[in-house]
Structure formats: structure tokens, C-alpha cells
Amino acid sequence: MGLSKKDLSRKKANLKAKLAELEKKAQMDPLKRNKALHDEIADLQKKLAEK
Description:
0% strand
């Protein structure tokens, strides 16, 4: 059984909120020393592009 439109929009909104939060942290790390943080941002951007 698939997700309803409401569930999909909620999931997308949660992804956007998390991405915004992580991008704030990434601005404090311009040299990309925290690779896991930048990998997670790339992963979230990819998931948002799929939706």
C-alpha cells in the first residue's frame, strides 16, 4: 500500500526542514572537514530531486 498525498507532502516537508538545518551547519564547515555531514546533505538533495 502506498503513501497518501498528505503523507508524501509531510515527508517532503520534513526532508526540506532537515536539509535546511544541515546546510546551516555546513556553512560553518567550508573546508568540508566533516565529510559525513556533506554526504548526508547530498543524499537528502538527491531524495528531494526524486520526489
